Inverse folding.
């Protein structure tokens, strides 16, 4: 039997619900959801979370992708594996960033997307001390 002409694709809120449920199940840490509506056309939501290690980051990402496929979402793009310091999952309306804590602190995406000004002493073009 042929596939339906228009398979039902989850909307942004359902996609976000699936992602947040799996992140909670997998014990992801410090999960933050950023509403992108009206800020950009790249998606409706951004989720930023942390895993405890490279292995945990990879396992969380794998399970999120599996759940999204099970929910009927296809065409998901994943970047950052196999190193798993930072894995990005582009699920269309929802973008997920899964970091190791040190990498998350370094990039500080939440601050960038909140519109806050850069930290004093670390202006554009300056090197950060290591």
């Amino acid at each position: 039997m042929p596939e339906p002409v228009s398979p039902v694709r989850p909307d942004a809120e359902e996609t976000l619900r699936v992602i947040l449920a799996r992140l909670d199940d997998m014990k992801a840490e410090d999960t933050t959801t950023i509403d992108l509506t009206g800020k950009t056309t790249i998606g409706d939501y951004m989720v930023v979370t942390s895993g405890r290690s490279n292995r945990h980051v990879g396992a969380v990402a794998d399970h999120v992708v599996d759940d999204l496929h099970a929910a009927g979402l296809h065409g998901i793009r994943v970047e950052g594996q196999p190193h798993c310091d930072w894995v990005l999952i582009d699920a269309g309306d929802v973008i997920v960033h899964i970091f190791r804590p040190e990498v998350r602190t370094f990039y500080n995406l939440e601050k960038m997307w909140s519109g806050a000004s850069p930290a004093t002493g670390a202006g554009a073009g300056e090197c950060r001390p290591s």
Observations:
- The helical segments are 12-25, 54-70, 101-107, 109-114.
- The longest strand covers residues 29-35.
- Residues 116-130 have pLDDT under 50 and may be disordered.
- The CA atoms of residues 85 and 103 lie 7 Å apart.
